[in-house]
Specification:
Layout: H1 54-60, H2 71-77, H3 87-97, H4 100-123, H5 133-137, H6 158-163, H7 178-195, H8 200-209, H9 211-223, H10 237-240, H11 242-254, E1 272-276, H12 283-289, H13 294-300, E2 316-320, H14 324-332, E3 342-346, H15 353-360, H16 364-370, E4 383-387, H17 389-394, E5 404-409, H18 416-423, H19 427-434, E6 447-452
Antiparallel strand pairs: 1-2, 3-4, 5-6
Helix pairs in contact: 3-11, 4-7, 7-8, 8-9, 15-16
Length: 453
């Protein structure tokens, strides 16, 4: 990908108090090419490394061929980026340390994906600090979506995702796919590393703020006789805190006891396996064959936007480790015409989409999208395809019905937000309980069921 200039904007998932840094980039001379300082240059970095305890020193001294039991030990042994002193590193280390519940949730999400990410980074000889990058990009949430329209673990915007082969359509978003997005992130980071002559801090700044901005900042500093290392560049405030955030996470992972945190071990073995199902299939069938709920299957396959795989592929589905052969064996005996679970509903006079959706336990949006309807108008005598697995998806997350049911009759001007506030429930709960899509209009007299806990 050498030579491509890709503008990219990312949004960090943490909303942190602003630390103001006054800096202003100077317009570069396009005819001047400043030199690059490498990450290992003593002129560029102050390699001040905090001490570690004896347990982690022992892990760091393991022989290369000695098996690991914990993925965290593999990550620690693979740290290669130098350190530098910065008040921002201390600030973010304190920020994470003061939120142990947040860190516990982050580690829980990371435990699903980290082994795979570490394996891929090892194959490309990347420093293991990169394995921690999703912590500051998405908090290891594959469905994360920023106000800058970046999505997935690695927070790709649409255009950069497509540059690196991430398919995005009605059925599938590769930016949210763990396998595809990790491959794309490695490809993009390798390009940036080479573009900045091996300086990982410049590459990471470009990953966050765009390579042209970093190149202009380097050129401006060079022309004015200033250091061109990352710490001295005049970049956006977010980008100037990006690497310190990563190094703060690194310090915590390297020595959690120093920060009074306990990291739950992550077994050094695959969490999931890849099952190639060959053609389009209903995710409900795969979930059933793998003894999973549809919600659990979606946690491993967040790239699938519907209740089935993309007809044109990928036909690769992640299943828990040990389930691959079981799923494929059952699929072998499934006739091709049974791979999709659809009901055909013949529309009768007086039918409405909302009534049909309630009858089958799916959302109005599921009916509209599966039949490519732009509005809610349907005609008697026509046939609607009803995706039956959408009912399983609709009942997940906020769909649990517990407590006393109360029927609210919609009045003119009512919105879901108004009703949710009145009964102290979540809007998504109202949508799930009543099979209402976010864009559906409420009608006066319509009955909304609320379950009061």
């Amino acid at each position: 990908m050498a030579g491509k200039k890709i503008q990219r904007i990312f949004c960090l998932t943490l909303s942190l108090p602003a630390l103001f840094l006054g800096a202003c980039a100077t317009t570069p001379n396009p005819d001047v090419s400043p030199p690059h300082l490498t990450s290992g240059s003593s002129a560029a970095r102050n390699d001040s490394v905090p001490s570690v305890n004896h347990r982690h020193e022992k892990a760091a001294n393991k022989a290369a061929n000695e098996p690991y039991e914990d993925v965290w030990d593999r990550i620690r042994d693979g740290f290669r980026m130098p350190e530098f002193e910065s008040p921002y590193i201390d600030y973010y280390a304190d920020w994470y340390t003061q939120r142990p519940e947040y860190m516990e949730r982050l580690v829980g999400r990371a435990s699903i994906y980290l082994f795979y990410i570490v394996e891929q980074l090892k194959q490309h000889d990347f420093p293991m600090e990169i394995a921690l990058l999703p912590a500051i990009e998405s908090a290891f949430k594959p469905r994360a979506y920023s106000h800058a329209h970046a999505a997935g673990l690695w927070q790709f915007i649409s255009s950069t995702g497509r540059q690196y082969g991430l398919k995005q359509n009605w059925w599938y978003d590769g930016r949210r796919d763990v396998v595809d997005a990790t491959e794309a992130a490695i490809g993009y980071l390798a390009f940036l590393r080479d573009e900045f002559k091996g300086d990982w801090f410049h590459a990471l700044a470009a990953y966050n703020g765009g390579e042209r901005r970093v190149q202009r900042a380097i050129a401006a500093n060079w022309r004015h006789g200033k250091p061109t290392d990352y710490q001295h560049l005049a970049l956006r405030r977010e980008t100037m805190r990006y690497v310190p955030k990563l190094l703060a996470i690194k310090r915590i992972i390297r020595d959690p006891q120093r920060y009074n945190l306990a990291l739950k071990p992550i077994p050094n073995r695959p969490y999931f396996e890849i099952a190639n199902v060959g053609s389009q299939i209903d995710l409900g069938i795969v979930a059933e064959y793998a003894d999973l709920s549809v919600k659990e299957l979606h946690k491993l396959n967040p790239g699938f936007r519907r209740w089935a795989t993309d007809p044109a592929g990928p036909h690769r589905i992640l299943v828990p480790a040990g389930k691959r052969e079981q799923v494929l064996a059952k699929l072998e005996s499934l006739p091709p015409n049974k791979r999709m679970r659809w009901a055909r509903h013949k529309i009768r006079r007086g039918d409405t989409l909302s009534e049909i959706a309630r009858r089958y336990g799916v959302s109005v949006s599921a009916l509209r999208s599966s039949n490519r309807l732009r509005g809610t108008l349907i005609r008697a005598g026509h046939t609607l395809l009803v995706p039956l697995s959408a009912a399983s998806i609709a009942s997940s997350d906020y769909g649990q019905r517990s407590g006393q049911p109360v029927v609210h009759r919609v009045k003119r001007g009512d919105t879901l937000w108004d009703i949710a506030q009145r009964y102290k429930v979540h809007i998504r709960q109202l949508q799930r309980w009543n099979q209402i899509a976010s864009r559906d209009l409420l009608q006066p007299g319509q009955k909304i069921t609320v379950y009061l806990n």
